[in-house]
Amino acid sequence: MAVPARHTSKQKKRSRRGHIKLSVPAMHYDATTGEYRLSHRVSPKGYYKGRQVVNSNDNGNN
Q1: Cα–Cα–Cα angle for 45, 25, 41, nearest 5°?
Q2: What is the Cα–Cα distance from 42 to 57, expressed in whole angstroms?
Q3: Rounded distance between C-alpha atoms, residue 44 and residue 30, angstroms
Q4: Are 50 and 57 in contact (CB under 8 A)?
Q5: Where in the chain are the domains?
Q6: What is the per-residue pLDDT across 16-42, written as a single tens digit (0 to 9) for each?
């Protein structure tokens, strides 16, 4: 069984784990609907780039 020869210091351990973190989603204000939405996604009201691409009364069940 492999056993480390030396104790890993806090600095070495933390620098190795420095890139492991949560990222904040890119939220933008949509002036058409007045809501915030994710980038490159359709707004909850069905708008994308200022025009309606999904009907608001469409519930997704076909």
Answers
A1: 30
A2: 15
A3: 11
A4: no
A5: 24-53
A6: 998 888 988 899 898 888 889 998 998
Q: Classify strands 47-48 and 35-38 as parallel, antiparallel or unpaired.
A: unpaired
Whole-angstrom CA distances from 32 to 39, 43, 55, 57, 62 are 14, 10, 15, 18, 27
Main-chain dihedrals φ then ψ at residue 48, nearest 5 degrees: -145, 125
Neighbouring C-beta atoms of residue 51, cutoff 10 Å:
8
Amino acid (one-letter) located at 18 = G
DSSP sequence for the chain: ----SSPPPHHHHHHHTTT-------EEEETTTTEEEETTS--TTSEETTEE-S-TT--S--
C-alpha 25/C-alpha 31 separation (Å) is: 19
**pTM, rounded to two decimals:** 0.51
